Amino acid sequence: MRFASWNVRGLNKSPHQKELQNFVTMNKVGLMGVLETKVKAHNALVISKKINRNWRWLFNYEHRYNGRIWVGRDPGVWQVSLHSSNAQCITCFATFLEKNITILVSYVYAFNDACDRVPLWNYCTNLNQSSLPWCLLGDFNCVLGINEISGGGEHWTPDIQVFKDCVTDLGLGHVRTLGKLYTWTNKRSQDLVLKRLDRMIANALWFNTCTEGNAVVHHRGIIDHNPLLYEEHLQVQLFGKPFQFFNFMLDLPGFTALISRAWSLDCNGNPMTQFNFKLKNAKQALRVFNKEHGNLHNTVHIVRNQLVEVQTTLVLNKTPDLMHEEQTLVEKLNVAILQEEHLLLQKSRVKWMNIGDGNNSFFHQQCKANRMHNKVLSLEDDNGDLVYGQQEYANVVVSYYQGLLANVATQDSIDLNSINCNTVTNEQSIALVAPVNNSLILKTLKFMKRNKALTPDGVNVEFFIATSDITGPSFCKAVKFFFSTCTLSTGTNSSFISLIPKVPTPSKMKDFRPI
């Protein structure tokens, strides 16, 4: 699924027509918004044929004489019908025929004057009631912050805040965008100004539906605006999810008995091997335990509907049994909501909100935003080519770090005796190498921070603290085994290396930093 927009700054001249034609052909675009054509109405059909003679077109000449917005599509790829239009926007229903997916697309070319853009924001507010995945793309003629301006005396203006408030109030977010940040230039060798005027934003339903796509800012060529292309890739190969322990399970009935049974199984080997064996048994039991308790989000929805039915019946027939059932469902719903909030808080990685604040919807949106932001949909290899798929990503990452770390830097030996520094006393030295005891190990465990990222084995501090009566003895034996032998098993010694983006739209390995 590919569609695009481009402010071509006039389409009457042959060079601009050729640039647009090449972009459409090279990128196999099936749906295209062409902005600021400056083509008179009587020439529209002739010039549009030069772009692609088989395409069908929508225009907004009834709102503006100079053809500010054209929307063209390949009828063999897209089925398009007009939803509404005005001088600054054409909105259409677009069905991608291959997958039979219908979306709402708004091609935007906003006016230069801030006051003239107000009707556009009001129009978008009315469109926000749509039950379809909805995206807006094009030239908004406004930035969302001074970080989207380079040169020309960057400063905040009131229209920036108006645009930002509109996007926030409508619950819109940026579609993941690769390529250059700035999409417009004044093309001056002196006093160069760059701005991000072109963008693609979408509603929450879009992020739920179109999960495998991203926008790409392409090279502008001879035009001062960069084209924006949305492309959805083939479904990437899915791998099994690693085990994750979620804190809400601690409060479920039967949890302690389950861990006790799983932990009672023994195996031969050293204390570290025995601990890993018991933990593996516990994780297998917890997987089944989690499935038995179903989807927390569905549980909240089901219990809430049951409560509504009982309360509706109570209006007509107030019996002791119904009143007792209502109270039971209220308590059950409170527990389900709290468990859901525990789960979403842990997934969202939000630190500044507390359980019980009732921020489930915020946490849920944060989880989606995290997934979209962290998902790698394409990566550029050493040759500058984009690759797709988990195995291809792994090859690029390994190749990059092998090249980076292949040459080990040499360093002259250091005479430690020549370094003047404070030294520990004999008493401190003896204390440092003294054997650790169970009390110290468990005390250290309890002082560790809560709500931190899961380790590679999928469990967290909360699990071991809550089950210390069961898991504590084995845990302490494994720790003391390490201090006495200085060895760790392979599974215990493993760790995750996460690639954290250094820039808003990473596409190359140098755009990430490992932690």
Descriptive key words:
alpha+beta, globular, 515 residues, 15 helices, 20 strands, Deoxyribonuclease I, Chain A
Word description of this protein:
It is a single chain. It contains 15 helices and 20 strands. With 515 residues, it is an alpha+beta fold. Helix 6 (255-263) packs antiparallel against helix 7 (271-292). The longest helix has 29 residues, at 320-348.
Q: What characterizes the major β-sheet? A: 7 strands, mixed
Order of strands, widest sheet: 3-4-2-1-16-15-11
Strand content: 15-25%
Q: Using only CA atoms, what is the Rg? A: 30 Å
CATH superfamily of one domain: Endonuclease/exonuclease/phosphatase
Instruction: Look at the structure and give the mean pLDDT.
Output: 84
Q: Can you count the beta strands?
A: 20
| Oligomer status | single chain
Named at the architecture level, the CATH assignment of one domain is 4-Layer Sandwich
Q: The CATH topology of one domain is what?
A: Deoxyribonuclease I, Chain A
Number of helices: 15
- Report the end-to-end length measured between terminal Cα atoms: 35 Å
In short:
This protein is α+β, with helices and mostly antiparallel strands and 515 residues long. The protein has 15 helices and 20 strands. Among the domains are: 2-232, Endonuclease/exonuclease/phosphatase (Deoxyribonuclease I, Chain A); 257-286 and 427-515, no CATH class.
What is the topological layout?
Elements: E1 2-7, H1 14-26, E2 31-35, H2 44-51, E3 56-59, E4 69-73, E5 78-86, E6 89-96, E7 101-109, H3 114-127, E8 134-139, E9 149-150, H4 158-169, E10 173-174, E11 177-179, E12 184-185, E13 194-195, E14 198-202, H5 204-209, E15 213-217, E16 228-232, H6 255-263, H7 271-292, H8 296-316, H9 320-348, H10 360-374, E17 379-380, E18 386-387, H11 390-405, H12 426-432, H13 438-446, H14 461-466, H15 468-485, E19 499-501, E20 512-514
Parallel strand pairs: 1-2, 7-8, 11-15
Antiparallel strand pairs: 1-16, 2-4, 3-4, 5-6, 6-7, 8-14, 9-13, 10-14, 12-13, 15-16, 17-18, 19-20
Helix pairs in contact: 6-7, 7-15, 8-9, 9-10
